[in-house]
C-alpha cells in the first residue's frame, strides 16, 4: 500500500502572513487569564474543567474583525496562548488546595513556580515529540479538539463566526451569578430534606419520612454549562453518584447509626443520630468517595496502559528518527521549523536546578529528577492519548495519582514522612500533573497549527508566553477564592495543643455590649438566636466577664458596630444599639498554630491559640473547609474533590491514619461499576461531590440530550454549535463573577459584599423574605436560564456553519 499523500495545510508553507504579533500575544494572554480563572473556579467547585480552545478561537476572530483584518495564523496564535491558561488551571486547582488540607496555606510565589515550571516542562517535552506525533502520525492520531479548533478558525477566516453567542452567554452567566451570589436576590441552593419532626398528641417528637435523605440543587450557570458540554452520558453518571450518596448511603448510615451509643470514627465524640446529612457525608461518605475516585482514576490509567506503552515507545522512536540527518534546520519549510533541540536540553537542566534551588518549593534533588523523568513519560502519554480519544477522556487525575503513589512509596522507603516531606510530595505530583495536562493541550494546539499551516516555532514561543502570563494570575485566583471564603470560627479542643506554633499573630477587636436578658426577652429572642444574624454581619457574639461582647477581626469604629442592622428570628430588623449600648474595648492577640499530620484527635488545619497554647479558634479555609454552617448560617465552600483525594493519599500512606474500611467500600463500588460496563470515574466524582453540585450538571446534560436528538448533528459539529458556545459563555461569565465577588470580599473585609446584600437593606418585608427563603423563586429563575440555553441551541441548529459547509 502506498503511503498517504503529504498533508496540505490551509495556508501553504510558501506564504507567510502575519502570525506571531504583539497584539495576538496580548489578546491571547487576556483570554487565557479569563478562561484560566473560570477553570480554576470549576476545578475547586466540582473537580472538572472544560476546553477553552474553541471559545478563545471564536472570540479572537470577533475581536480582530472589529479592529480590522487578521490572518488565520494570527488567530491561531491567540487560540494557542489562550488555551494555555485552561491547561494549567486544572493541575493548579486540583493539587495545590491539598496544601490547605495538610495544614499549610497557599503561597502566591509557590503557586506561580509550580504552574510555571509544570507548564514550561510540558511545552519543552512536546518540542521533540511534535514531528513524530503530529506530522508522522497525522492519519492515525485525530486530536479531536485540535481538529475542531482548526475548523472554527478556517470557517472564521471565510466568514463564519458565532462570537456573539459566547458574549451573550458570558453576560447572562455573569449577571445571573451576581444576582444570587452578590445581590442575594434568590437562594444559591434550593432543596429540602426528605424527613421532618412531628409532635404526637402526647407531646413526643418523632422523626418521620426518609431519615437522612435530602434533595438539593445549586442554581449555578457554570455547572449548567458544564453539563451541556460534557453531554448527557457523563452528566447522568455523575448525578447517579450523587444519588447513591444522598439517597442511599447517607440514609443507610443514619438508619444503622440511630441506635449506636458510641461514636464511630469521630474523635470529637459526636453520635451518628445527632448528625445531619452533610455531617454524615463529611464523616463517612467522603472516604467512600475518595476510594472510588482513586480507583476510577487508576482504572482509567490501567485501561490506557497499552496506549501508554505504545505512545512512549513510538514517541521515543519517532523522535530519534526525526532528528537523524537534520543538519541544516534553516532550509526547512516554514511549517516544519521547531525550536532547537539544544533549548530542550538546556531548558530541562535549568528546570532541575530551579526546582532544586528555589526555596518556596522545598524540593530536593531526587524529587526534581523524579519530576523531569515522570514529566517526560506522562507528557508523551498525555499527548498520544489526547490524539486518540481527546482531552476530555485523558486520565490526568490517574497520572497524578500514580505519580503521588510512586513518590510517597519512595519517600516511605527512605523514611521521609514528616510534614515537610508531605509538602514536597504534593509539589512533586502537582508539577508532573500540570506538565501532563499542558502536554496534552499543547499537542492539540500544535495539531491545530499543523492543519491551518502555522509555524511550529511561533506556536511554541506562543505556548511559553501563555504559560508564563497565565501562571502569574492562576495562583492569585486560587488565593482570592480561598481567602474570600475563609472563616475564623470558635472551636475548642480541651487538653490538646497545636503541633507547630508559627510566629504569626491575629488581632481581634472587642466591643463590650450592654445587652441584658430582660431586653432580649422583651424582643422575644435569646442570646443564642442572635449569634447567627450578628455573625452574618461580620460580628461574633461572645461572653465577657461582665456580660456580653462583640468581636471582629477588623478594626471597626464603635459607631459602625452600634449601627449594624440585625435581623431577629421574628423577621424584625433592629440596630445593635437598640438592644444595648456598645463601647470600644481592648484588643486581643492570638497566636497562629498548625496541626499537620500529628497523632492527635485535633483535625489537620490552622488554629488560633492563647498564650497558654489552648486552641480557641479554627481558621477554616474556603477551599476544602470542613465546616459548612455556623450558628445556622451557611458558609461558602469549594469542595475541591481532587485535592481532597490527593491529601488523603499523602496522609494515608505517610501517616497510616486513613480509615481503610470506608476507602475499600469505595474501591469495590468502583470495581462493581466497571464490571457492569459503567465508567467508574465520573460516578465516583458524583459520590464525592454534594448532590447540589451534580444536579445542575445533570440538568445541562439533559438539555444537551434533547438538543442532540432534535438536531442529529455530529460530535464535531456540537463542539462549536450555539449551545456549546453559549454554555462556554455561561461557564466563563459565572466563574468570573464568582471570582470578582470573592475579590470584593477580601478588598473590603466584607464591607462591600454586605452592602450589596439587597434583602438585608429591605428589612422585614415580604419581598426580602421571598429573596432569602423561597425555593420556588430561585428554581424558577434557574428554569428560565435553562430554557434560554435550550432555545438558543435549537434556534441555531439550522444556522450554524460547519466545516463541511464552507462557502
From TrEMBL:
Q: Where in the cell is it found?
A: Membrane
Pfam families given in the database record: OPT (PF03169)
Using the UniProt record, give the first listed, main subcellular location. Answer: membrane
Please provide the record's keywords in A-Z order: Membrane, Transmembrane, Transmembrane helix, Transport
Which parts of the chain span the membrane according to its record?
A: 25-44, 50-68, 80-102, 108-127, 234-258, 284-305, 339-357, 363-383, 395-414, 461-481, 662-681, 728-747, 776-794
Would the keyword Membrane be found if you checked this record's keyword annotation? yes
Q: What GO molecular function annotations does the UniProt record carry, in alphabetical order?
A: oligopeptide transmembrane transporter activity
Record keyword Transcription present: no
Single GO cellular component annotation? membrane
Kindly give the InterPro entries that the UniProt entry links to this protein.
Answer: Oligopep_transpt, OPT, YSL-like
Q: How does it sit in the membrane?
A: Multi-pass membrane protein
| Annotated PANTHER family | OLIGOPEPTIDE TRANSPORTER YGL114W-RELATED
Q: What is this protein called?
A: Peptide transporter
What is the organism lineage in this UniProt record? Bacteria, Pseudomonadati, Myxococcota, Myxococcia, Myxococcales
Amino acid at each position: 500500500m502506498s503511503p498517504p499523500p503529504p498533508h496540505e495545510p490551509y495556508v501553504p508553507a510558501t506564504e507567510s502572513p502575519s502570525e506571531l504579533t504583539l497584539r495576538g500575544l496580548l489578546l491571547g494572554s487576556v483570554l487565557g487569564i479569563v478562561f484560566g480563572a473560570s477553570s480554576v473556579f470549576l476545578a475547586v467547585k466540582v473537580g472538572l474543567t472544560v476546553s477553552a480552545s474553541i471559545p478563545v478561537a471564536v472570540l479572537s476572530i470577533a475581536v480582530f474583525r472589529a479592529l480590522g483584518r487578521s490572518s488565520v495564523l494570527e488567530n491561531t496564535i491567540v487560540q494557542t496562548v489562550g488555551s494555555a491558561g485552561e491547561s494549567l488551571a486544572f493541575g493548579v486547582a486540583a493539587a495545590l488546595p491539598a496544601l490547605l488540607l495538610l495544614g499549610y496555606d497557599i503561597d502566591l510565589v509557590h503557586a506561580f513556580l509550580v504552574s510555571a515550571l509544570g507548564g514550561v516542562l510540558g511545552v519543552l517535552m512536546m518540542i521533540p515529540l511534535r514531528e513524530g506525533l503530529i506530522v508522522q502520525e497525522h492519519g492515525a492520531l485525530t486530536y479531536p479538539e485540535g481538529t475542531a479548533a482548526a475548523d472554527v478558525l478556517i470557517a472564521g477566516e471565510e466568514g463564519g463566526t458565532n462570537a456573539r453567542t459566547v458574549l451573550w452567554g458570558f453576560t447572562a452567566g455573569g449577571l445571573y451569578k451576581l444576582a444570587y451570589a452578590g445581590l442575594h436576590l434568590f437562594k444559591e441552593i434550593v432543596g429540602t430534606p426528605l424527613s421532618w419532626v412531628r409532635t404526637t398528641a402526647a407531646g413526643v417528637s418523632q422523626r418521620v419520612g426518609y431519615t437522612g435523605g435530602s434533595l438539593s440543587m445549586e442554581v449555578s450557570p457554570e455547572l449548567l454549562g458544564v453539563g451541556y458540554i460534557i453531554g448527557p452520558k457523563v452528566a447522568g453518571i455523575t448525578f447517579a453518584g450523587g444519588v447513591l450518596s444522598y439517597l442511599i448511603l447517607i440514609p443507610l448510615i443514619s438508619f444503622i447509626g440511630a441506635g449506636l451509643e458510641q461514636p464511630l470514627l469521630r474523635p470529637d465524640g459526636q453520635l451518628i443520630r445527632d448528625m445531619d446529612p452533610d455531617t454524615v457525608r463529611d464523616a463517612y461518605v467522603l472516604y467512600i468517595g475518595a476510594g472510588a475516585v482513586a480507583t476510577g482514576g487508576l482504572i482509567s490509567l490501567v485501561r490506557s496502559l497499552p496506549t501508554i506503552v505504545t505512545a512512549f515507545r513510538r514517541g521515543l522512536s519517532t523522535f530519534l528518527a526525526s532528528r537523524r540527518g537534520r543538519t541544516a534546520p534553516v532550509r526547512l519549510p516554514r511549517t516544519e521549523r521547531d525550536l532547537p533541540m539544544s533549548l530542550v536540553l538546556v531548558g530541562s537542566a535549568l528546570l532541575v536546578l530551579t526546582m532544586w534551588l528555589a526555596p518556596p518549593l522545598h524540593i530536593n534533588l531526587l524529587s526534581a529528577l523524579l519530576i523531569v523523568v515522570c514529566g517526560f513519560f506522562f507528557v508523551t502519554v498525555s499527548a498520544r492519548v489526547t490524539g486518540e480519544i481527546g482531552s476530555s477522556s485523558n486520565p490526568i487525575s490517574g497520572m497524578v495519582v500514580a505519580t503521588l503513589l510512586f513518590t510517597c512509596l519512595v519517600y516511605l522507603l527512605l523514611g521521609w514522612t514528616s510534614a515537610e516531606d508531605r509538602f514536597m510530595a504534593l509539589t512533586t505530583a502537582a508539577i508532573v500533573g500540570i506538565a501532563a495536562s499542558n502536554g496534552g493541550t499543547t499537542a492539540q494546539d500544535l495539531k491545530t497549527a499543523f492543519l491551518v499551516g502555522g509555524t511550529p516555532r511561533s506556536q511554541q514561543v506562543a505556548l511559553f508566553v501563555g504559560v508564563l502570563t497565565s501562571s502569574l494570575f492562576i495562583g492569585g485566583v486560587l488565593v482570592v477564592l480561598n481567602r474570600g471564603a475563609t472563616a475564623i470560627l470558635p472551636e475548642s479542643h480541651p487538653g490538646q495543643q497545636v503541633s507547630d506554633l508559627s510566629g504569626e499573630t491575629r488581632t481581634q477587636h472587642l466591643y463590650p455590649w450592654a445587652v441584658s436578658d430582660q431586653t432580649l426577652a422583651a424582643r422575644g429572642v435569646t442570646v443564642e438566636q442572635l449569634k447567627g444574624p450578628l455573625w452574618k454581619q461580620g460580628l461574633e457574639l461572645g461572653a465577657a466577664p461582665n456580660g456580653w461582647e462583640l468581636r471582629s477581626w477588623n478594626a471597626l469604629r464603635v459607631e459602625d458596630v452600634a449601627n449594624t442592622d440585625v435581623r431577629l428570628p421574628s423577621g424584625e430588623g433592629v440596630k445593635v444599639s437598640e438592644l444595648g449600648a456598645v463601647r470600644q474595648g481592648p484588643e486581643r492577640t492570638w497566636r497562629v498554630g498548625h496541626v499537620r499530620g500529628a497523632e492527635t484527635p485535633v483535625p489537620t488545619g490552622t488554629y488560633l491559640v492563647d498564650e497558654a497554647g489552648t486552641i480557641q479558634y479554627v481558621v477554616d479555609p474556603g477551599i476544602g473547609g470542613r465546616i459548612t454552617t455556623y450558628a445556622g448560617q451557611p458558609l461558602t465552600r469549594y469542595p475541591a474533590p481532587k485535592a481532597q483525594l490527593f491529601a488523603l493519599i499523602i496522609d494515608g500512606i505517610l501517616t497510616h491514619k486513613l480509615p481503610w474500611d470506608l476507602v475499600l467500600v469505595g474501591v469495590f463500588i468502583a470495581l462493581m461499576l466497571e464490571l457492569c460496563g459503567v465508567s467508574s470515574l465520573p460516578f465516583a466524582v458524583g459520590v464525592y461531590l454534594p448532590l447540589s453540585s451534580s444536579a445542575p450538571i445533570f440538568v445541562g446534560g439533559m438539555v444537551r440530550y434533547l438538543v442532540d436528538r432534535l438536531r442529529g448533528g455530529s460530535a464535531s459539529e456540537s463542539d462549536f454549535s450555539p449551545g456549546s458556545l453559549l454554555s462556554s459563555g455561561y461557564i466563563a461569565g459565572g466563574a468570573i463573577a464568582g471570582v470578582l465577588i470573592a475579590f470584593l470580599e477580601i478588598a473590603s473585609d466584607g464591607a462591600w459584599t454586605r452592602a450589596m446584600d439587597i434583602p438585608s437593606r429591605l428589612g422585614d418585608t415580604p419581598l426580602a423574605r421571598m429573596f432569602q427563603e423561597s425555593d420556588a423563586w430561585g428554581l424558577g429563575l434557574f428554569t428560565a436560564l435553562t430554557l434560554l440555553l435550550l432555545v438558543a441551541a435549537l434556534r441555531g441548529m439550522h444556522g450554524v456553519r460547519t466545516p463541511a459547509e464552507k462557502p
